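Input (Uroporphyrinogen-III C-methyltransferase):
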Amino acid sequence: MVGGGQVAHRRVAGLLEARARVTVVSPEVTPALEALVAPGSLTWVRRRYEPGDLDGAWYAVAATDDPAVNAAVAGEAERLRVFCARADDRSASSVWTPAVGRQGDLVVGVHGGGDPQRAVGVRDAVVAGLTDGSIRDRAAREPEGGRAGSVVLVGGGPGDPGLITVRGQQAVAQADVVLADHLAPQSLLSSLPPEVEVIDASKLPRGRSMAQEQINALLVEHALAGKRVVRLKGGDPFVFGRGMEELEACVAAGVPVEVVPGVTSAIGVPGLAGIPVTHRGLTHEFVVVSGHVPPGHPASLVDWPALGRLRGTVVVLMGVDTAGAIAAALVEHGRAPDTPVAVVADGSTATQRVVRTTLTGLARALADEGVRPPAVWVVGEVVRLATEPGPAR
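Output:
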């Protein structure tokens, strides 16, 4: 790679992903390229290009802002019969790099007839179709005869289907069976083919719910029957999602299992409301707490006196019905009564709303506003920073 600017940065990323041994020749490189030198991901020759730099190479990229240097690199490559791509002149290149996208182990490469933007657009459309299931990869969906199935524990994020990870969306699109919570992005289920079995594994707060033991048994049963099974949850599987219990059940049964992390509502939902859980010079810690049982309850594992003494941010999940008791405990153990609180209800959905109050006013505010689960509430000075973001345009 001759050149160390932004073009070189993009090209090097693709080469490293292909496990190439990369040498960059340039007096200067971008900070991102420099960060790859110390761990040995690439070699940096810190000078201008000189004849002979391509000795031993099989592929070269001329990516400087000097056409004369790029022409010299291409000339040396031609003499050595080395493939060379000129970033400034495709017609003078001996090789064109396609727009490459990946979906699992499937690689899509697109040439745009000399138009790189056209190639990128087609590549993105194909990869998006493979990801959301609108383009079917039959080989990925149909297990080989006699092969055991598998389970993927997918964190679906706080509710908006656009906030699920790419890998999570791929797993859902390839599933034969989906066990879904009510907090998972429901619109993803509507796009599944009719032959995919969808099982309601919801756990309603203090209401109807599927027993965890039954969920574990269904995951194992369908996987052992040769199915690709997805356990689709809201948030992240390992943040109050009982994902570890499901992982342990699969491992004990000899079922291959993968964990796909999700955007946890503990951070994602406040962020969508413009509330950072940390802020430079204001707080150096934040704590995520389950509020499904109140302080003093025999089943509570939370050290409420310690939380009351903290100066940082406290994020409470599953704490609508217990909010008054939790707020009182925090005040009792050291938090100022007028500490600001923001409650974000229905985070990431079209009905998202924010209620602002204080610790002493929290219970009354929830009652007056008729807030019901799901809701996340945040305690701390970061609440004063809140500026609700608008949609990108």
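The radius of gyration is 27 Å.
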